[in-house]
Structures are given as C-alpha cells and as structure tokens.
Amino acid sequence: MKFLHTMLRVSDPQATIDFFRLLGLEERRRVDVPEGKYTLIFLGVPGDDGGEVELTHNWEETGYDTGRSFGHLAFQVDDIYATCRRLMEAGVTINRPPRDGRMAFVRTPDGISIELLQEGRLEPAEPWRSMPNTGSW
C-alpha cells in the first residue's frame, strides 16, 4: 500500500497555493475539468515523492464550512521558529505558537488546520514562549 494524497476543497486556489508555498510545498500538476467545472491542483514537498495535497476548486463554489470531522494536515519542519516567523511576516495567524519548540498550528485561507512539527526539538525561545494561543486548532 502507498499513501497518495489528501484532498482539500478550496474557494480561492491561488491564496491556498501561496499559503502552501510559504510552507515549502510546490505545485506538481494541475488538471482543469471544464465539463465538471472544477480544477485539481497537486502540491508536494520538493524532493519527496511521498503523499501530496490535492486542492479541489469547484468553479462555482464561493466558500466552505469546515466541519470538525476533518482534523488537520501535519508537516515536519527543519526550524519551527523560522517557519512560523516567515508565515507571520506573510500575514498568517499562528493559532498555537511553538512555545515548546516542538509544535505549532496555523490555518489555510479556507480555515484548514495545519500542524507544524519540529524535526527533533528546539529549546523554548522568545517571543514564542510567552505568546498566547489566538484560536482553536
């Protein structure tokens, strides 16, 4: 068995692609299906042939309500502090800061929860250690 992908429905594909590019993913391929009025966009980690994130954009959809049945996507990062800093500088809200040097949560433009996990563990550092949560994850 081989894991292939996780699919997310998105209302603004470019904003979502930009978000995942900030995390380090790249667009691998795109399929427009005019008869079905949707586009599939596949993203992945450069150099990793593993699972992908499939973005499905239904052309006539204007927004989605994210239910609690979907948990989150998780990505391992080399430096959680640098990753969160880069995301914040781009306007992304850090819902659960990396206070412990190990884990953080952010959200995509459509409200999908993304867990960031530090490879190994970093020592708790400011300003992250004292930063409060800004929302649920």
CATH topology of the largest domain: 2,3-Dihydroxybiphenyl 1,2-Dioxygenase, domain 1
- What general outline do the C-alpha atoms trace? globular
Order of helices and strands: EHEEEEHEEE
- Secondary structure: number of strands: 8
What oligomeric state do the depicted chains represent?
Answer: single chain
Find the structural class using helix and strand composition.
alpha/beta
Uncertain segments: none
Main sheet: strand order: 1-4-3-2
Write down the domain tally. 2
The number of helices is 2
What fraction, in percent, of the residue positions are helical? Answer: 10-25%
Computed Rg: 16 Å
At the fourth level of CATH, the homologous superfamily of the largest domain is 2,3-Dihydroxybiphenyl 1,2-Dioxygenase, domain 1
Average pLDDT over all residues: 87
| Fraction of residues in β-strands | 25-35%
CATH class of the largest domain: Alpha Beta
Q: First CA to last CA: what distance?
A: 30 Å
